[in-house]
Amino acid sequence: MSTHAQPTTVRGTAGPNAGHENKEVGQDRKAKTQGRWAATLILPTVIVLGIVIVYPVVNAIIMSFQQDEGLDPVTGSFVAGGFAGVANYVHWLFQQCPAPDGGTTACSPGSLGAQFWSAMGTTFFFTVVTVVLETVLGFWMAIIMARTFKGRSALRAAVLVPWAIPTAVTAKLWFFIFAFDGIANKLFGTAILWTGSEGPARTAIIIADVWKTTPFMALLILAGLQMIPAEVYEAAKVDGASAWQRFTQITLPLVKPALMVAILFRVLDALRMYDLPAIMTGGANGTTTLSILVVDQIRQGFNSAAALSTITFLVIFLVAFIFVRFLGANAVQSATGPGKGKGK
Amino acid sequence: MSISTAKAASAAAAAPHLAAKRRERWANGRTYISAALIFIWCLLPFYWMIVTAFRDVGYTFDPTPFFTHVTWDNFTTVFSEDLGNHFARNLLNSLLVAGVTTIVALLFGVFAAYALARLEFRFKFLVLGFVLGASMFPGVALVTPLFQLFTNIGWYGTYQALIIPNISFVLPLTVYTLTSFFREMPWELEESARIDGCTQGQAFRKVIMPLAAPAVFTTAILAFIAAWNEFLIASQLSNESTKTVTVAIAYFAGAQPHQEPYTAVMAAGTVVTIPLVILVLVFQRKIVAGLTAGAVK
């Protein structure tokens, strides 16, 4: 950043020593006005985000410690509201429901309370499988798109089409493709009821998700690939490095920062997956993700849903933390530009 | 590496000239095959949606890969008020919600991004972290408390009940994208304007704004697409009259009850998608730049 443009002109009119002092004072004053300017410009955004995010989250945390009012589905007796302690969290984490004797018992199978850990498992299953597939496929797509050939820009445009289609439409489109009489069964000569059981239902959702989001991954990786100077490859070629060696020794390490950020984005996005399973299966047959469970719970009790959404939020936060802390996916640093951000 | 090694290597490579050429042609061929595969994988499902959208409902599951039994009927069904579809209304709702969200996000985001890209101040790292964290925030964590809040204050089903939560993810996206765009602009021009006697505010308006217009425009497209495609919040907080297109498509009513109206849904999907696809194809270069801005650099 060229912060010395003005002090330089000052130095031009005064002596070297005076100029030096002026520069210090000028920079100090400049930093102060810049700080004030920055605050004025940024504060509105911070306030707006505070209202639309921080307020609901704090609200949800407060709600999560309250008892849901209403008739108890098991005992039929009226349950008053009021402070509940960690009862809502115990309800989800240990899958405990109110028992007729006033204590708690294991939630009956099929009830929302009994689905927490399976929803957690489903969410992580979808996340790991889709992100691994998208990373591998995305890398391959990026490598192809990085080459120079006729029709390259047509390919890049084509790749954007799945990305631009709303997820709700994507879900309906693949729902149609995977219908019993649909094109998928005809194409492969199979007669699978795709949304009827766990394996096929999950497969259908994974394929739809991979189709929709691999382009995003590919474009991020492509942007990383294009930062690698061609000379590096030339040099390696001359040194006799094989294509595989060039990939593992040059491409992978150099593209790693961009790749990690892309993976981080995708992982956090996949952990909150809702649209595809909600529309394709309605969460049936082992496709209930945490987000779907929260939404199902909302109409059965806000406070309990708030506890579940807080757990979901914490899980996602924890994963993001692990990524940034231990795997070096520093999205903030790459956003502040090279060399900056560190030590601040 | 020394020049002599490079020369020696190139001389060695020149000897089996024909083999190298053949290998190169083979590599080119493989590139084209891969490119074709990606092209087909990305476009075939989209093509199938359009083919089905124009196909007579009686031939819904006809696997013929071309346009056969072409009809406009599905589009009539989509817009048929008699069947209980208010698709025109849904389109307007989406346009309104996504449009207002985009405008609000830009109004705030432009200034924040300018400060983040251009000014030195304490807590910059913190602010960027906050903005990034906000963009990754799970929608369900907002829907639960907002559902109760909006019900209590009588906002459930209103437009503002859809726009406000949308801002929570569109504004961070806007700030993030604009910040990386702004960082790459020729700011020397601002410095010269200031030397010529402009205040920082004047320099911003007269020099930077015109330069920044393309970046703002690209960001607006990305913000609009993100808001237009939103489903979770709209499905929970809208009512019959404020329902957006994504929700309408997910719960579409066909001519026959208890029968999934595949062709009509594909027609509705086509109506919603075609404008986006045209937008994306026209501004392909800018959108790719906007999508990847910030992730690398």
- What is the typical, i.e. mean, pLDDT of chain A? 82
In sequence order, what are the helices and strands of chain A, one letter per element?
HHEEHEEHHHHHHHHHHH
Largest interface: A-B, 114 and 109 residues
CATH architecture of the largest domain in chain B: Orthogonal Bundle
The name of the CATH architecture of the largest domain in chain A is: Orthogonal Bundle
Largest sheet of chain A: 2 strands, antiparallel
CATH superfamily label of the largest domain in chain A:
MetI-like
Measured between the Cα atoms of the first and last residue of chain B, the distance is: 28 Å
Question: What does this 3D model show about the protein?
Answer:
The complex is a heterodimer of chains A (344) and B (297). Chain A has 344 residues and is an all-alpha fold. Chain A has 2 domains: 70-108, no CATH class; 128-336, MetI-like fold, CATH 1.10.3720.10. Chain A has helices at 5-13, 16-64, 87-93, 116-146, 152-164, 167-177, 183-188, 198-225, 230-238, 243-271, 275-280, 290-298, 302-326, 331-336; strands spanning 70-71, 78-79, 96-98, 104-106. Chain B is mainly α and 297 residues long. Chain B has 2 domains: 16-75; 84-251, MetI-like (MetI-like fold, Orthogonal Bundle). In chain B, 73% of the residues lie in helices and 0% in strands. Chain B has 13 helices and no strands. The interface between A and B is large, with 114 and 109 residues.
